[in-house]
Amino acid sequence: MLTVVYCVGVLDSSMFFGLHSCDGKKFKGSIKLAWKTVQKLITLFSNSMEPKLINTRGEENINPSKQTLSNGYTNQDGMTHALASHSINTVANGYPSNTNSMIHFNYNLYATANQSGSNYSKPTTALIEQSGNSSLGSTSVTVSPVSSDSCSSGRNSSSPDSFVSASPGQSVDRAYSSSMNGGQDLTLHEFEIVQEKIKREGTYGITKPPYSYISLISMAMKQSPKGQLSLSGIYNWIMGIFPFYRDNQQRWQNSVRHSLSFNDCFVKVARPLNEPGKGCYWTLHEKCGEMFGNGGHLRRQSRFKVKERAQPKKKKITNSKQTVVPKIEIKEEEPDELSNPSLGASPVTAAEQQEDVKTMQNVTSAAAGAVSVSHDHSSWGEASNHYQSAPVISSPQIFEAAEPQTNLNDLYPLSYEYNDFSTSIHQSQNYSSNSSFYNPAGSNVNDYDGYENTIYR
DNA sequence: ACCTAAATCAATG
DNA sequence: CATTGATTTAGGT
């Protein structure tokens, strides 16, 4: 049994859903459902609030002997799976709409329907049951409507700039620390809060979320099964979760690209040679740690920097007081106990350099050990229906032989097997000490030089 | 008020 | 799509 957690994208004539096993053990990738199927799903929702088993063609399964989830959100392990509601019911501006169907997937109609109490506005979560055989034909889908009459109202015509506040209903414990949540990643915890809000209200709403782009990108990456996403995957994830970002896409997407390139916490992972598609994958630097350990997700205490640019670019000095602060260089392997920056477990022996302290405080235990990620064909944010893409297991010697990279276009030498999603989906990436994986922690951190370059400004 | 992270616009490849 | 510069905005102290 798989749970459809998200609609992660809308392309041409189909929608993509992120999948999650109900036992919480295995991630199964994403599934592409044709528009016809999606429409049938919604029709089923509209006609009945009862969970239904259907196949990938939207045909009802008459033998629903398998387990279904009553609420569509929570499975046996107690994990919360939210949403898809607004994703199914709404489509970002510019998304294709099927004008021949009774259901029009465009936002304006959604707004209209929502205001008129249409069933279209009902949040939905679908369950997909997959047989042992991974052929699409044998895949069935259970749809389980989630009642809610508190969907946010449809958008108005205001520009996004008018939405600047967080949801008033969001009472986030900003002081939440890893010591309070068993060491869970703070960003993922924040995402759980988002999920809960969506679960509660049906949609996140059109307000601008109180997260910086860096935070949003981090969330997207961390929730992805393999900790990496393509650019479009990031776009889709953000739009799927936060309706606010279905507007002004050129603006914020440019900002996302800028964030990815500018911030050392984001590193590129090469797309496998045999994999179609353009662009690379992006992942988090394995040493960036809890960037938002200060409790807020708008602004980090300090930027995560890898190393000073060898030849700092000219910086226009308009103010004599303005100086180019040397970029913080990561040095030394992380001590074992850096788990909680909020507890002040600074790895730095002394604060000779305040900047060093600030940087290192961002490094947490999550940074220790190897990052287990691999090229991900099936991330939620990806327009892909590759259920079981062959993991790309890069031989370590590839990296051992790699010269220090100085080309700005060089990719982050990450290509790790990802083999257990169960521990990582809700607990950040799965860091493994398996020696068969490339272990960047085993090398001097100064080896990082080259694959990113940022000036501190 | 100040510092600077983040956002924005945009040129370039 | 990716990088970078320039500039503005705004969070946090």
Structural write-up:
The longest helix has 16 residues, at 186-201. The chain has a domain at 188-296: Orthogonal Bundle (Arc Repressor Mutant, subunit A). The model is unreliable at 1-32, 44-56, 61-180, 309-329, 331-379 and 383-457 (pLDDT under 50). The chain has 457 residues and is an alpha+beta fold. The chain is globular and about 65 Å long. The strands form three sheets. A six-stranded antiparallel β-sheet has the order 3-2-1-5-6-4. A three-stranded antiparallel β-sheet has the order 7-9-8. A two-stranded antiparallel sheet has the order 10-11. 20% of the residues lie in helices and 13% in strands. A hairpin with a 2-residue loop joins strand 1 and strand 2. The chain binds a DNA duplex (13 and 13 nucleotides) through helix 7.
